[in-house]
Amino acid sequence: MPPYRTSCTSTRHELAEEPPSPTGVRDSAHVLPQLAAYGPVFGHSQDAMCPLRANGAAPGIAREFTIGTLRAWGLADLADDATVIVSELVTNALRYGLPAGFVTTDDRPIRLTLVRHGALVVCVVADASRQEPLLRDPCDIAENGRGLYVIEALSRTWGWTPLPRAGKAVWAALAVPQA
Hints:
Layout: H1 28-31, E1 45-52, H2 58-72, H3 79-96, E2 110-117, E3 120-127, H4 147-154, E4 157-162, E5 168-175
Antiparallel strand pairs: 1-2, 2-3, 3-5, 4-5
Helix pairs in contact: 2-3, 3-4
């Protein structure tokens, strides 16, 4: 069976103009090296990619895309945790992943990719910055600064990797429930 592919669609935006990349996120051992310790990284996988605009609607579009993709894969039970993770990753990409004065001809500079590989579903958000995501120690009354702690609590593992040409991918892996 060929890998699952989809273009990002949502009731709140038009069909993505660009098809999923032919290279995509296929080789988990290359793109997400730390995941190799969690099981086989070659073989059958499914993936879905959603390019996102750098605006306030992006987290909501990412959540809708995640819910629809997980339902299509028969993994609706992961939707609650996955949508929180994706929302945090996309929000961080909007806040920290687009450097000051960032200019691009790409009107969708953030990429959400979901990969189902073996016993894992990996949520990957790529942005233009190489700045490492850091767990901060927010003060008790801070209204932000806890996103990576939330991701850490909900995922089996998370991390980031620099991308070959530019930018980085921040990812979080969820365990697929046993049938």
